[in-house]
């Protein structure tokens, strides 16, 4: 994924039920993320149309995957699985042994996808968030 993909990627993200966007997904913020995590995020194109995305990066210790999305018309073709596998390979190449992702409780399709490709739902902890501007 390169920043020039942003408009198509953002349009896809807006189509996907259960994928929540915020100011962190602005063009400027995604550009910084891609620059910091070079070669770890991908788009999947079919005839010039962005059919899938996977944002991936790490903090030097753990990997994180965000915004795996596949256009509904292109689902069932293993696009999401291939995007995730490629990003996980890049994390391994960088020496990162574990990767995390976040799925909202009410995102049933997302939960089915991740469970279906071998990810384990964790419990026993809570995620806390806060805007840095507070």
Automatic annotation (TrEMBL):
Class of enzymatic activity (EC top level): transferase
UniProt KW keywords: Acyltransferase, Transferase
Pfam families to which the protein is assigned, alphabetical: Acetyltransf_1
Domain of life: Bacteria
InterPro entries for the chain: Acyl_CoA_acyltransferase, Bact_Acetyltransf, GNAT_dom
Annotated N-acetyltransferase domain residues: 1-134
EC number: 2.3.1.-
Entry GO MF terms: acyltransferase activity
PANTHER family recorded: AMINOALKYLPHOSPHONATE N-ACETYLTRANSFERASE-RELATED-RELATED (PTHR43877)
Name of the protein in question: GNAT family N-acetyltransferase
């Amino acid at each position: 994924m390169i920043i020039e993909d942003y408009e198509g990627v953002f349009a896809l993200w807006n189509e996907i039920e259960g994928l929540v966007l915020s100011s962190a997904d602005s063009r400027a913020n995604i550009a910084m993320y891609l620059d910091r995590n070079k070669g770890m995020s991908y788009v999947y194109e079919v005839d010039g149309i962005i059919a899938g995305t996977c944002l991936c990066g790490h903090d030097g210790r753990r990997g994180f995957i965000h915004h795996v999305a596949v256009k509904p018309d292109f689902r069932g073709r293993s696009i999401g699985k291939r995007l995730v596998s490629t990003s996980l390979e890049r994390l391994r190449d960088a020496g990162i042994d574990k990767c995390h992702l976040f799925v909202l409780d009410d995102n049933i399709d997302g939960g089915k996808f991740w469970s279906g490709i071998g990810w384990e739902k964790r419990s026993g902890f809570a995620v806390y968030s806060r805007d840095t501007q507070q």
